[in-house]
Amino acid sequence: MFGVDAAACVIGCRRAMEFAVKWMYSVDGALQMPWQDTLVSLMGTEEFRDVVGPDLHRRMDYIRRVANGAAHSGKEINPEQAELCLENLFCFMDFVACCYGDTYEPRTFDRGLLGKEEAPAAVDEAALQEAEQKLNDLLAENESLKAELTSRREAQQESYVPKPLELSEYKTRKLYIDQMLRDAGWTEGKDWLNEVELPGMPNPSGVGYADYVLYGDDGQPLAVVEAKRTCVDVSKGRQQAKLYADLLEQKYHRRPVIFLTNGFETRIQDNLYPERRCAAIWSKRDLEKLFNLQTMRTSLKHVTVDRAIAGRYYQEGAVRAVCEAFGEKNRRKALLVMATGSGKTRTVIALVKVLLDRGWIKNVLFLADRTSLVTQASGRL
Prior knowledge:
Elements: H1 6-27, H2 39-44, H3 46-72, H4 79-100, H5 125-141, H6 146-156, H7 169-183, E1 192-199, E2 207-215, E3 221-227, H8 238-252, E4 257-261, E5 266-269, E6 276-278, H9 284-296, H10 313-327, H11 344-357, H12 371-378
Parallel strand pairs: 3-4
Antiparallel strand pairs: 1-2, 2-3, 4-5, 5-6
Helix pairs in contact: 1-3, 1-4, 1-5, 3-4, 10-11
């Protein structure tokens, strides 16, 4: 399948990996089934991450993300992506064999076998459904094996030699970071440019090349992305990215957001709060919204609390304390702990009104554990 249909290849890798992950949950006492049996939920538990380790989890997550793009978005999959998915699947199955098998022989991934496939095997949906049913039956049968295989995994896991994913910076960019940008809606050559030349760098040539620069519809740079190899700490690119952002700010009179990434870990410097981890590189819409909010914001000093909403002295004090934390102490989070009947709902609504009036927020998400609380809150808005 690899040489004929790369998309089908990565989807097959994902399916095989999902079967193996579910099997692990059925036989390993350290793994408790989460509330949902989807692959992303199974792979996301702390227990599973601890068992497979960060390097292997990165490999598995790449299979999941690429296959989801092929299956649900119809994205084109190139042979390099399919080859990496096969290698990652091999490493995962090698780990499973080492930890749970009664005999294990270390092996290495042989790329030479990839070119030997001549024709794709026919996909028998009925056989696949039968295999899934057998898997479900196996999950029930494996209950009696849990203690034995869990202890075997704990004993044999220490002897497993990890196979860290060590890609060059070029391959990291092409296989991981480019895909992250496409997933966020960026278009290469249009609002996303590679190797942007920036004169004025403090080096012998006086010129630097930013790995990625992301632009808004007005042609203004929204973000600069500094890429590092998969095995390199993203913090090593911090100073270089700062210099690129300085040069772009001098030219365009607006400082872009900085993203530092190695394809797995991504950090953001948004010119508002200290550097922090983020799930992915932001979309153009989110970055433009961020810059709009920055221009609209006014100071949170000397705020006026609407007493028709929250007129008690401690409610006003709570609102002012949160505004001080956001505005003067540069914090992104605040927690209010108030007794039952003290007016928590009114206090937070008064706070939202202040933040809206001062241009700090546009949308608000309220979470509650009971429908009655939501109804009560909405009635006071």
